[in-house]
Amino acid sequence: MVSDLRYVLRKLRNSLGFTLVAVLSLAIGIGANVAMFGVVRTLLLTPMPVEDPDELELVAWTRPGDFSISQTGSSGYTDAESGVSYRSNFSYPIYRSFRSAAPGDVGIFAFAFLRGVSVAMGDQPAFLAGGLLVDDAYFSTLGVPMAVGRPLTAEDDRLDAPLTAVLSFSFWMRAFGGDPGIVGRTVRVNGNAAEVVGVTGRGFKGMSMGGFFPQTDVTIALSSQPLVYPRMSSTESLFTSDRIFWLRVMARVPGPSKEPARQALEAAFRAGPSPVMARDGEIPEVRFFSGSQGAQPVRSETARLLRFLLGVVGVVLLIACVNLATLMLARGASRQRELAVRRALGGGRARIIRLMLLESLTLAALGTAGGLLLAWSTRALMGGLLSGSLGSGAFGAIDMEVVIDPTVVAGSALLGVGATVLFGLLPALRLSGLDPADWLRHRPGAGSASPRLTLGRLLIALQIAVSVPLVVGAGLFLRTVSNLGAVELGFDPTGVVAFHVNPGYTQLPPEEYPALYQELLARVQAIQGVRSATLMEHALMSGISSNGTITVDGERKTLYRNAIGPALVETIGVRLLSGRMPGLQDGPDAPRVGVINEKAVAELFGGGVAIGRMLEVGGGAVQVVGVVNDMPYPNQRDPVPATLYEAALQRAGYGGHHLVLRVDRPIGVLEPTIRAAVADVNRDIPVPEIHTQTGLMAQTSAKERVFTQLLTLFGGFALLLASIGLHGVTSYSVTRRTGEIGVRVALGARPAQIIQLVLRQVVVLTAIGLVVGIPLSTAVGPVVGSLLFGVGPTDPAAIGGAALVMLSVSLIAGLVPALRASGVAPQTALRTE
Q1: Are 75 and 278 spatial neighbours (Cβ–Cβ below 8 Å)?
Q2: What are residue 555's DSSP bridge partners?
Q3: What is the pLDDT of residues 658-706, one digit of tens each?
Q4: How far is CA 244 from CA 69, 74, 224, 278, in A?
């Protein structure tokens, strides 16, 4: 066996081109499959690292008809069978009634997401962190593992208790370098002194996978809401109001108790103090949804796209295996004479089969090892690429660890081994039923003795067919990205950067916010390299927007709203068409003013005079003092909406504003100075990542760009493999028909006719693959249609372009053996007969 292995390695080394192609194709197929499944498993399949996560149920409700409640941080959950949408939030009194009504073996706990909190220690600048408010039963019912310290308990969830906090493992490492002495130390949470009592175990990221609500960095007691996050309600107590729904409720329910527990909570919901209790025959319903992955798993649209990508890499692995099978068939057919010599010299059938099997297993082992190495080395890149497109703006990419799944490795390797072994043994098995003398009477290439490789041609057609959808998908996304880049912006994004500042993270009263904004503008404006600075409530094309109802001339209409500061024209290059822009004089004590865009002029005033008109907005009057050109607001996809831009200093609420700067130096050079300037104004205001305007625009189309990159990569790989396989089969066909070609040349065939003869086979195989592949490509559209822009899922240009690319690649792959065939000398070719 050792001798055979040395022989096999020597043969593979002597056929280095074949070996590299076979091993690399299998390695790429296995590596991409393993890495992508690791991402999908982490995001879609892996439950939270808590005790018995399958017992966790998220409590949700629905009721037909209209009702008047206020929901904070609500999410909708849709029943896949009925299509009914359920709401996720409850009031505090309802939650307490759930605690009382739950059966004894059912644990109930509540929590509320915080979009962000400020965390700082000593005189250091503050960090922006994802926050979570939890009740006294959260940690004990979940069974959250702790790295150091202790969880929050009932003693921490009292109104008179000192403020305490639990950090996540990843935030502990990122903000405090994993200092084990963090327990017992004091940090500032939104400007309030808080004692760190523990750090959760590695891998536990709270109740959100990331997205609009970030993964949890800091967990604080529910009772601290009025102190740490009062902006959740500025008018009444969240702990007594039955009309403010702000809490998520989750239950730990043992299997047999699920339906009795649901009925008990539903009865409490109907009977409790709630404006959605049964009335007019409209009965509210309580429903359980799986909470094994938390309350904010990856959205269904994103999950569908991730599964699509998993299918894409599965197709890539299939293409790699088919290509390997084709190469093994062609290689085996070209070695028939060698095998015949071995049989004639006394080599037994078992010995020859053992040699071929060993060669196939060696190739499969090398390909699998290469695939594992590739998956391991690219798992962070793949995870970062995908999680970055699913992140939540200021909080960046989703923090996730991609795991290598042994089952997927084994399954992928099994496909590779099956392809290499099965098609590597076919020549040996075919030869075993023939007389070696029949082979030895002919030189390699003699048509009567060489197999026609019909199966290899069928495999090539199959390979082309499954490659077409990948190429079509890549074309659709390339056109999508191109169309997004061609959208008319209406302003100049070059040199514009933006970052969010929120005075709500401090202990300042709201009436002092305008003065704080003015000081921030003055400080950053003084930095060398900053040409101008302004405020915007929502940065343009950041994916975030707001709208509301206004009244104009007694008629109610819906209008998008934003807030802007002085120097907007100089900072972003918007065009003032008439009137003036809000300035520093438009402070909180001045009459409310705003500007509108062209679309709003058309919708509100029929294209007439807008300057001086009054709009009823939020219970007050806003005077239109200017008109600006249309600009995309939340993203490049949506049509420009009718928009009102109010004075930012008059709308300086809890949500904060973006500081938007026009700079003439690289942001990497300016960033430390900008952060220091903000910290000098107020050290409790965290500065998240500073984005360039072009970066914000790219972030809103991150999914499209990621899919473009991945589909282009995989589509290119599929084209490469198809061309290699086609080249191998065509080369073998030319070798097999050498005698025939010589006869044709001797009878007067011109080189162009020989090239045409060879390429005809290539065109036929490609045509068969396209006939099968083009209908398959129509299945791509419904899956990715929501991401396309300016192009349909069955766009004829994309399908036609993919067919043209496939045909061109096929002709190039077949051209080399065709040119070789056209140069065959008749006297040399005829000697083969």
Answers
A1: no
A2: 552
A3: 999 999 999 999 999 999 999 999 999 998 889 999 988 888 887 788 8
A4: 6, 11, 17, 18
